Amino acid sequence: MTLDADVGLHLGALDLDVHVVVEPGEVVALLGPNGAGKSTLLRAIAGLTPIDRGSITIDAEVVDDPSTDRLVPPERRSVGVVFQDHLLFPTMSVAENVAFGLRARRVDRSVARQRALDLLDRVGLSSYADERPSALSGGQAQRVALARALAVEPRVLLLDEPLAALDAGTRATVRRDLRTQLATFAGMRLLVTHDPVDAYALADRVIVLEAGRVVQAGTLSDVTAHPRSRYVADLVGVNLVEGDVDGGVLHTTAGADIVIADATDGAAFAVVRPHSITVSSTAPSGASTRNSWQGRVIDIDRLGERARVRVDGVLPSTAEITIAALEQLALRPGDTVYLSVKATDIEVFPR
C-alpha cells in the first residue's frame, strides 16, 4: 500500500510532470525553488487541483485519472493537509477547528468533539480546547492544524511549509514536536520545505523539483554529496560545475578548463567545496595550482570565524576562508581576486 502520484498538469506558466511514490511510514521532503511545483503537487494529491494527465493512487484506490474520468473529491480522499498559514477558522473554537473535518464527514458531534479533545491532549493543547485561534501562538496554531489534519485518520498526510510562518526562536522547538508527532503516524507523509534543516530533521528521503520536473531524489546525504543542479549546490553550500571530461580535464560550457583526478571521459558534474578553494589577490603560480581562475568579489558573508566569499567570473564560485585571511586580503565587493583549488580536492561523478 503506497501513495503513487504520476502527475501531469498545466497551471499558468507551470508545466508539472512528476512521478512520486511514498511508502507507508515514510517521510518524503519536496525541495525546490519558488515556482517549481511543490505546492501544486500537494494540491493535486489532496484533490484541490485536478490533473490533466497521469493518475493518483492511494492504497490501491485511484482517486484521479483523467483517462477514465475518475476524480474523487477532496472530502472523500484519505488525505490530511497542514497548510503553511494553518488556515484555522477564527470564529470557531480550537476544538471545533480540529473536529471540522469529522463534522464535514457527518460524524456525530459528540464523537467528533471527543476525538478532537483526544488529539489536542496528544499535542499538549487540551487547555485551549474552548479558546479561539487568536489566543494561540504560531507554534500552537501549527500543532492545532496538525491535529485537525490527523482527526480524519488519513492515510496520506501533506504538510506545505508547516514551519515557514514561525519565527527562528520557535521553529526549532516546533520542528522537534513535529518530528515526534510524525513518528506516531503510520501512513504516507509528504512535506514541502525550502529549508534543508527541516528535510534533515524530518525526512527519510528528499525529492528536488525544478521547473516542474524531478531533478534529483534520494537521501539527503546522497543529494548533498552529489548535487545535480545549481539550486541543489547552492542549497547545500557547495559549488557545482557542469561540463565534459576529456583526458583528465573538465571543460565547462563557459570556457573554463579544470584539471581533475581519477575521472573517466564524458559528461560529468564536479563538486568543489568552498573550504577547498584558496583566495588570493595575485595570480598563483606553481604546478600544484593548475586550477586557478580570476573573478570579481560580489558578496562577503561573515559566519562566526569564517567568511563565505562569492566570486563572479568564468567559473562563478563561493569560497570559505577564515576571518583572519579576509582581513589580511582586505577584500571588498568589486575587488578582483584569484581562486585556486587542487585537482585532488575536486569530486567528479557522471552526469
Structural commentary:
- The structure is a single chain.
- The protein has 351 residues and is of the alpha+beta class.
- The chain folds into 2 domains: 3-225, P-loop containing nucleotide triphosphate hydrolases (Rossmann fold); 237-350, Beta Barrel (OB fold (Dihydrolipoamide Acetyltransferase, E2P)), CATH 2.40.50.100.
- Helix content is 26%, strand content 35%.
- The protein is built from 9 helices and 21 strands.
- The strands form 4 sheets. It has a 6-stranded mixed beta sheet, sandwiched between helices. A 5-stranded antiparallel beta sheet has the order 2-1-4-5-6, with helices on one face.
- A hairpin with a 3-residue loop joins β18 (306-313) and β19.
- The protein is elongated, with a radius of gyration of 25 Å.
- It starts with a strand and ends with a strand.
